[in-house]
UniProtKB/TrEMBL annotation:
Ranges where the Aromatic amino acid beta-eliminating lyase/threonine aldolase domain occurs: 15-298
Quaternary structure and partners: Homotetramer.
Protein's name in the database: GntG family PLP-dependent aldolase
Keyword Transcription: no
UniProt keywords, alphabetically: Pyridoxal phosphate
Signal peptide: none
Domain of life from the UniProt record: Bacteria
Claim: Disulfide bond is one of the keywords in the record: no
Cofactors named for this entry: pyridoxal 5'-phosphate
InterPro entries: ArAA_b-elim_lyase/Thr_aldolase, Low_specificity_L-TA-like, PyrdxlP-dep_Trfase, PyrdxlP-dep_Trfase_major, PyrdxlP-dep_Trfase_small
Family from the record: Belongs to the threonine aldolase family.
Source species: Rhodoplanes azumiensis
């Protein structure tokens, strides 16, 4: 498997908790060692500038900003788009609503308002109603949120047409749209389209280089020149201005230049896992819903809850994430090859 030879996990513990556990490639480490450096918060770091320009071009936006994390990138998007007191219209299973809400409320001072959705796609009638009205005592919608691939929906991909419909609907109301594209390149590979095609209808987009693309740290927030200028000032306010950040940006460049096409291999391994686990117990997962590198397993009809499953699998050298009482999350990445997937299926059979 391309890129996996420098850290192969099928022979030891198999870590499926997240694709954030990926290690930098040898090419990334060499690029980090030799990167031209400057002060990103003063005159600019040349390697960061290269990364920002490449990322902006790849997602079809005018400019981009390098940030330490996807969470910071998303928070900056909210701060740059929305005035305090407004609502962010969001799918209740979006990562923003489940894991980033403290920053949304406590730092940005905006209110999340759930809109009915399925597999990451909004009920368009419900979204139209939410855009047109505001609950009593509320200012109204200031931002519409999208996410693809969709973590809470098990790595599902939002169709390009749906992104376009949401963008057009919000534009008619004068409300911007932000796309949490932490795994946008997984979605692009699954759909067979450029990332810029998916992001074209939205006003801003955040992408991570530190998940399946294997860079050790970093994300990029992209949008118009004016939007990125606001976000850059807000990044300093949040303490996110960095100095010789080219050391880490260099790995991000390698990630964007060399690691996107191989994401298809992670998707294939995820489908292999889904087929094998469904063969053990069909209620665990529907293989037809596995579109990228993520599986969310329903263990509610088994004899064990999610924590017990995670503990039993750990004894077999398989690390997975329990999500609530009835769900396990498994995420494939470049350190998980087909042989590792087969070991996982065998471990599930033994743990059962």
């Amino acid at each position: 498997m391309s890129g996996a030879t420098d850290d192969h996990s099928s022979a030891g513990a198999i870590d499926l908790r997240s694709d954030t556990v990926t290690r930098p490639t040898a090419a990334m480490l060499e690029a980090m060692r030799t990167a031209p450096l400057g002060d990103d918060s003063r005159d600019g770091d040349p390697t960061v500038v290269r990364l920002e320009r490449l990322a902006a071009a790849m997602v079809g936006k005018e400019a981009a900003l390098f940030v330490p994390s996807g969470t910071m990138g998303n928070l900056l998007a909210v701060l740059a788009h929305v005035r305090p007191g407004h609502d962010v219209l969001v799918d209740p299973l979006a990562h923003l609503a489940t894991s980033e809400i403290a920053g949304l409320v406590g730092v940005a001072g905006v209110v999340p308002r759930s809109v009915a959705s399925r597999a990451g796609c909004y009920d368009l009638a419900a979204l139209a109603a939410a855009l047109a009205t505001a609950p009593a005592g509320r200012v109204g919608a200031g931002l519409v949120w999208l996410e693809t691939s969709h973590n809470g929906a098990g790595g599902r991909v939002v169709p390009v047409d749906h992104v376009g419909e949401v963008g057009a609907m919000a534009r008619r109301r004068g409300v911007p749209v932000h796309l949490d594209g932490a795994r946008l390149f997984n979605a692009a590979v699954a759909l067979g389209v450029p990332a810029a095609t998916i992001a074209a209808p939205v006003d801003s987009v955040m992408v991570c280089v530190s998940k399946g693309l294997s860079a050790p740290v970093g994300s990029l927030l992209a949008g118009s020149v004016a939007f990125v200028a606001r976000a850059r000032a807000l990044r300093r306010m949040l303490g996110g201005a960095m100095r010789q950040a080219g050391v880490i940006a260099a790995a991000g460049l390698v990630a964007l230049e060399t690691m996107i096409d191989r994401l298809a291999q992670d998707h294939a391994v995820a489908r292999r896992l889904a087929a094998g686990l469904a063969g053990l117990e069909k209620t665990l997962v529907d293989p037809a819903t596995v579109e990228t590198n993520m599986l969310r397993l329903d263990v509610s009809r088994t004899r064990h809850d999610a924590e017990a499953w995670a503990a039993a699998l750990a004894r077999h050298g398989i690390l997975v994430q329990a999500s609530g009482a009835a769900q396990l999350r498994l995420v494939t990445h470049r350190h998980i090859d087909p042989a590792a997937a087969d070991r996982v299926i065998a471990a599930f059979a033994a743990a059962a």
